[in-house]
Amino acid sequence: MKWKQIPLGPLQTNCYIVYDENQSCLIVDPGDNPRKLATVLEQLELKPEAIVLTHAHFDHIGAVDRIRDKYGIKVYIHEKEKDWLPDPSLNGSKHFMLNEPIKARPADHLIKDEGAMSIGSFEFEVFETPGHSPGSISIYFPEAEFVLAGDALFNGSIGRTDLPGGNHNQLIRSIHDKLLVLPEQTEVLPGHGPTTSIGLEMDSNPFLNGF
């Protein structure tokens, strides 16, 4: 199992392509620049299976419809944010974007439970990690030893909690109970910025002192 990080859009939101030896792939958080994303997919000769969203803030969903329509694939999101894709007041674009607000059609599949999940040939675990937003999830590939943490945990930082539905204490609990319990060598693929590891964040993240 391999992955590729592609920063997209004005906030340089990390989109991830997770792909296997058969050239199938999952697209996680296609935030903007659909043409750039499609070019990378074509260069790697990958066949998209689905789009999975760690959460529905505008900077993570801007290319959803263009990519799903181009490849004829389904979109997955946690049920707590099922109304956010078409609603600029919920996804935040109404308040942050200078140009047109971001809208996308509703997701095709709602994630309702934690635990093992499969899409095509991909098998992974879903953790509910709310706090940055109510329906934030993290996506864990145990055999490949990496977790896509969305905007929950960053290299040396954590997600902001001052947006609608955010909760600082809830986010700290999510990180502590769902992410810091993973093996220390687990690579953390965050929604912004460089990658890190569980062990590194346990040792040096100033927001997680005391864990």
Automatic annotation (TrEMBL):
CDD domains found in the cross-reference section: metallo-hydrolase-like_MBL-fold (cd06262)
Domain Metallo-beta-lactamase: 12-192
Coiled-coil parts of chain: none
InterPro entries reported for this sequence: MBL_Glyoxalase_II (IPR051453), Metallo-B-lactamas (IPR001279), RibonucZ/Hydroxyglut_hydro (IPR036866)
The keyword Zinc is annotated on this UniProt entry: yes
Entry-linked SMART domains: Lactamase_B (SM00849)
Any one Pfam family match given in the protein's UniProt record, by short name: Lactamase_B
Record's keyword terms, sorted: Hydrolase, Metal-binding, Zinc
Cofactor: Zn(2+)
One annotated GO molecular function: hydrolase activity
Keyword Hydrolase attributed: yes
Domain of life: Bacteria
PANTHER family the UniProt entry points to: HYDROXYACYLGLUTATHIONE HYDROLASE GLOC
Protein name listed in UniProt: Similar to hydroxyacylglutathione hydrolase, but in an organism lacking glutathione biosynthesis
Organism: Mesobacillus selenatarsenatis (strain DSM 18680 / JCM 14380 / FERM P-15431 / SF-1)
